[in-house]
Amino acid sequence: MPIQITAKRDGFRRCGMAHSDKTQTYADGHFSPSVLAELKAESMLIVTHVPDGQAENTDQSEELTLALAQVLEIQGSMIALQARNQELESSLLQLSEDAEALKSANERASTTIADQLLEIDALNAQVTSLTPAPDEASKEPADTKTTKSTKTTK
Prior knowledge:
With 154 residues, the chain is α+β, with helices and mostly antiparallel strands. The chain has 2 helices and 5 strands, in the order E-E-E-E-H-E-H. It has helices at residues 33-41, 57-130; strands at residues 3-7, 12-14, 17-19, 24-26, 45-49. The strands form 2 sheets. It has a 3-stranded antiparallel beta sheet. It has a two-stranded antiparallel ribbon with strand order 2-3. Residues 78-126 form a coiled coil.
């Protein structure tokens, strides 16, 4: 029957070899009976006899352990991506609110401009109504100066 040895601390040395904290399987007859007795007596080592077919399960256990590590890594990445997604959704919501506020401010500004243009037109009409029309009788053009300039001689 094959023997499986697992050290409680990685690199623990006994019988001239370092033992791993990962289960190692050794073929039947790898250790002499006296060495095997010494390994079994050591409290820092777990020594078990396994049936021939069960020794192959160690490889499957290692594969399952690696697969579990990958699943945990992927789960960690997924959690990080979900957190980032929430941050982005929050930013998008804030940008939407800011856009609505800017649209509202733009509409108020457009209304104010339209009101001011109407007021300017009304004031221009008032200025036009208060400006005297050119005198038709004197036949002076409207842009003629009404004051006479004096000529100075030296």
